[in-house]
Structures are given as C-alpha cells and as structure tokens.
C-alpha cells in the first residue's frame, strides 16, 4: 500500500512533518525503530520562532530577557521559551497514520515516473509519492559536535541564578587555555531548573565526563548544592553534516544551525511548507547555510581565550542583527550584514583568524 508521504524517523522533526501532513489530509506512513518512545531531551527556542499552530501548553516557561555572560553581563532583549517535552510530543498526534516499528536500511534515489521507496531492515520495501528522511545525523569524526552535561535541581537550591543563555565565566575549574565551555541555566518548571555545562561546538567536542567535572566545580564555586539523586541530562549531537534538499528534513536536512545547535523550532516552523511539497531551500537559504557553516569554522578556529570576547561582541550587535544571524535562515542580506558588522567590530588579531578559517586556511601560530 503506497502513501502520499513516507516519513523516516519520529524525532521532533519527523513527527512534526507527519503531523502537519495529516492535518493537510495526506495519507502518511511513518517508520521508526521505537515509535512510542517518550522524548526526554530539553528543547528550547526563541519564542518568536515557534509556529502559531502549536498549542500554548507546549511552552513550559518563558524568560523575557535571558542573560549572556561573556566579558560582562548582557541582557538579551528577546523572549526565550523552554518547551514542555511531553506536551510537545502529545501536541503532534499521528492519528490516521500508518505506523511501522522498524529501521530503515536504505532510501534509494528516486527514479523518474516511479514511486519513491525505502527498504526496511526486515526486508520490506515501502513506497510513497514522497519519501523524506528525518532520522537525524550519525556521528562522524569529520563533523563538529555539541556536548553537554546537566543536572535538574530544585529552584530553591539556585534561587539567585538567573536564566543564562550562555555564561562563559571561568569558575568551572578549567584552564583559560583549555577548550571552553559555558553554563546554560533555564527554568524547566516553576520548581525546577536545568543547570548544564555545554561545549558549543568541537571537533572533537569535550567529553561529557569533563563537562560533569566542570559543572560540579562551577556549582560548588557558586554555592549551589547538588546530590547524586538529581536527574542528569546528557547531550551529544553533530552540528553539521545535513544535506539540504527535498528528500531530507530536520537535522538530516541541514536545519540545525551549525553555529548554535538549534534545530527544533526551525523544523516546527517549516513543517507545513514541506508537507505541502514546497521547497524550503531557495538560493538565499542555501547561501545563508553556507555562511553559517563559515561561522562554525570561525568558532572552531578561535583560541579558547578569545571566545568570551567574540560572544561579548556578538551580543552587543543591534537586536535585529542578532536575530538575523540566529533565526533568519533565508534572509541573506541581513545575515551577511550581521556577520560583517561582527567582523569589523572585532580586534584585528581575531579578524585575521576568522578570515582564514572562513577560507578554510589555518592561521600560523
């Protein structure tokens, strides 16, 4: 039995796509090794990135002005939302879809005048008018990754901790010359807070065991109590390696921002267009993606000591330029303007490093 749409993978991107396709009246088949698996990761987004069709209860908490600490404290004038993960999964029902618990072994390239297909590990071949790979990205030594280690603690134990989008201060026990990590601190509920030591991007990224050591050191230095019974969150995923196009979606479709690691809001926001068969990769979006990859190369090339200066400079850009770089996935002019403004505001020694990294050349030491 063929379908209008076959979605491979039921993470947030794949489930959102299948849900929006069902809302359009399409026949949908979904394949995932564990389609009933409950999501446990923490998802967050700038509030203005979320689509209007999401129900309000999907947002667990909102902070109007989160803080970034680099070389100084900076308030970010943009509301930041932490999602209620179970509520998000529940808000994407798949009623009416054909759900298959299996693993996709191969998605052959489409042939003219023939249905698209996917071959499963059990040997079954499924066909559909469109097959979209939303299985995420495999790990690879060639791809930069983001890693994090976090603890979920009671708000009463960190009542003086504000919402921290990034905190690069060096109270985590690491040497100033060591690869850097920052503290990410967000309220999950009125009573709980996630405190997470994060390696933004590395090739290789910092090991979660090292991040655990740094987080414990940082919390002790700030007088925040924690126990062996606190719930732990571990994060590791590639921030590059996706392929833009009509046959992929989510992280597999290059919707992860390579310089920040965010992808869920973009997947939710673009799911309707992809379900409708539209392309979300016009030339401007491909050009922005290339610029963002250049931004990732720049981050990977910066000496650890200079990361706070880089982010201090970024977060003092005009708000519309910050928003363009972080969220404007097809606004080429605004993205280029933001990157140009940032580049010219940095000291010459950093500009040289960034220019060489963008061109794929190493700076001499």
From TrEMBL:
Pfam families assigned to the protein according to its UniProt record, in alphabetical order: Lycopene_cycl (PF05834)
InterPro entries with a match to the protein in the record: FAD/NAD-bd_sf
Alphabetical list of PANTHER family matching this protein: OS02G0190600 PROTEIN, PTHR39757
This protein's name: Lycopene cyclase
């Amino acid at each position: 039995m063929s379908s209008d749409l076959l979605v491979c993978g039921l993470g947030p991107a794949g489930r959102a796509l299948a849900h929006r396709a069902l809302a359009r009246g399409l026949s949908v088949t979904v394949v995932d090794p564990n389609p009933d698996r409950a999501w446990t990761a923490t998802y967050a987004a700038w509030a203005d990135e979320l689509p209007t069709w999401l129900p309000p209860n999907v947002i667990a908490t909102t902070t109007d002005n989160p803080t970034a600490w680099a070389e100084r404290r900076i308030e970010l004038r943009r509301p930041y939302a932490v999602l209620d993960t179970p509520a998000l999964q529940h808000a994407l029902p798949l009623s009416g879809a054909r759900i298959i618990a299996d693993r996709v072994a191969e998605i052959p390239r489409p042939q003219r005048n023939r249905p698209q297909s996917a071959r499963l590990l059990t040997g079954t071949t499924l066909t559909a008018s469109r097959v979209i790979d939303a299985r995420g990205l495999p790990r690879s030594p060639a791809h930069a990754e983001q890693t994090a280690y976090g603890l979920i603690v009671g708000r009463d134990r960190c009542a003086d901790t504000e919402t921290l989008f990034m905190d690069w201060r060096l109270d985590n026990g690491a040497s100033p010359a060591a690869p850097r990590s920052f503290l990410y601190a967000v309220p999950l509920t009125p009573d709980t807070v996630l405190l997470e030591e994060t390696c933004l991007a590395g090739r290789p990224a910092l090991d979660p065991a090292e991040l655990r050591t740094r987080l414990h050191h940082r919390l002790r230095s700030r007088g925040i109590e924690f126990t062996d019974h606190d719930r732990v969150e571990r994060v590791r995923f590639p921030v590059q390696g996706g392929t833009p196009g009509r046959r992929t979606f989510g992280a597999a479709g290059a919707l992860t921002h390579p310089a920040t690691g965010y992808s869920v809001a973009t997947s939710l926001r673009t799911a309707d267009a992809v379900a409708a068969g539209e392309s979300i990769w016009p030339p401007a979006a491909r050009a922005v993606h290339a610029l963002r990859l250049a931004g990732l190369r720049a981050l990977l090339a910066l000496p650890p000591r200079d990361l706070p200066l880089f982010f201090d400079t970024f977060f003092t850009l005009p708000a519309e330029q910050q928003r363009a770089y972080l969220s404007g996935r097809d606004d080429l002019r605004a993205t280029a303007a933001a990157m140009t403004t940032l580049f010219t505001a940095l000291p010459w020694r950093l500009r040289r490093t960034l220019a060489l990294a963008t061109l794929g050349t190493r700076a001499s030491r």
